[in-house]
Amino acid sequence: MSSRDTAQSGENSKKKLVNERVSQRLRLIRDAFIYLIVFSLILTIVITQTRNSLSADRSSEDTVLFTTRSSLSLRGVIVRDESLVHSSYTGDGVLSYCVPDGGRISNHSQIARIYSSYDQVYYRYRLEKLNEEIDALEKAQARGTTDYVQPDFILNQIKESYNSILSATVSQSLDGIAEDKLEMLKLMCIYNVASNAESGYDSRLEALKSQQSVYNAVLTNPVSVVNAVESGYFTSVTDGYETEISTDSIDELTVERINEIIATPQKNGVVGSNVIGKVFSTYSWKLVCVINTPDRYFVNGSFDLELSSTNKSYRVLVESITPTGRGDEAIMVLSCDEMDADIAASRVVDAELLFGEYTGIKVLRSAIRFSDGVKGVYVLEGESIEFKPLDVIYEGDDYVLSSHHPDSKSYLGLYDRVLLDPISSLGGSREADGDEAPEDGSGEDSAD
């Protein structure tokens, strides 16, 4: 082969190599362009789906069960028919009450005794406790008790009594804890004898009765006794309003007077030093308070009144709600026939008037629409939109509760996806499934 042919062949090889490299680069550019197009399409789809999903989440909401307690917070003045109890004794002495606060008294019965010193009061207190323990021990070792009881049964009663005391201690409900402790003592003594852990309590009884004799020997008669001049219910607490307000004068109580009493629930220097308490003729009492609400539907209704200080509830009747002429302000009068030590000792209370507890499907007012005069909402059913009526059982400020009908698909159901803005969800259309949806403003006003 000539040198000319060799050179030509080398040049062709170089051209071929260059062409292959160019083709390879073109293929790479083509593939990169294809990948870029595919990636762009995928990214567009993802962004679109995400946007649609976020838009759907913003404009719809899954229904859930919700429980609310309808109540009205108030602060009021307790009004009773009261009369002060006076002592005629003017000398020095220590007062000892015979009746607990809120306790029943009869005409001429003893309300209090006045002793010459505190020691006499203490001696009687110790005698009362000694008598209780003696009674418990004597019953525990009596043959009529121990011969017929089952230790396991008594043990279960001891556990129940212990749990009751523990619960009362935790909840600070200590009114009856002394009686519970005494009952537990009796049960433990009976169990010890019935299970042969103790043969008896003779030695302990002998020591207690010896102490009893010591205290009895130093007792002296009271220097004065205060007797009831009428039947009723007694409390040792006075506040100075006993002669100023009564159930007959409730109509004379103004907003200003009510607020004045609330601001000063205890009037100092008004009650005389010889006053030892007061008597109510009946268990009935009234609560007068100022409220600010347009609602009047609960007049003549009976509800529970829960005191904020004790969490105790009392059944009360809403006797009247009288507007004052200043906006939604009104004077409300409640009446009750339940009396205890807390009510007897109180003049001003903070409380909640409980109208009831409601559980239903929560629906925002902004989602409520009307179709053919029926209140309801629009829900997503797959790709379609359907109108479902509400069975409203409670109305709040910005939501309502619809009764849950698990056996019916006609009403709004649990976990239905409610459209919060049906008009926007329908792309500006005023109709869905042939039903007309009112404007947002009319929907909210109608829900009210």
From TrEMBL:
Species per Swiss-Prot/TrEMBL record: Candidatus Faeciplasma avium
Transmembrane segments: 32-50
Stretches with biased composition (Acidic residues): 433-448
Keyword Membrane: yes
Domain RND related barrel-sandwich hybrid per the UniProt entry, residue ranges: 91-261
InterPro entries, sorted: BSH_RND-rel
Annotated segments matching region Disordered: 426-448
Protein name (Swiss-Prot/TrEMBL): RND related barrel-sandwich hybrid domain-containing protein
Lineage: Bacteria, Bacillati, Bacillota, Clostridia, Eubacteriales
Keywords recorded for this protein, A-Z: Membrane, Transmembrane, Transmembrane helix
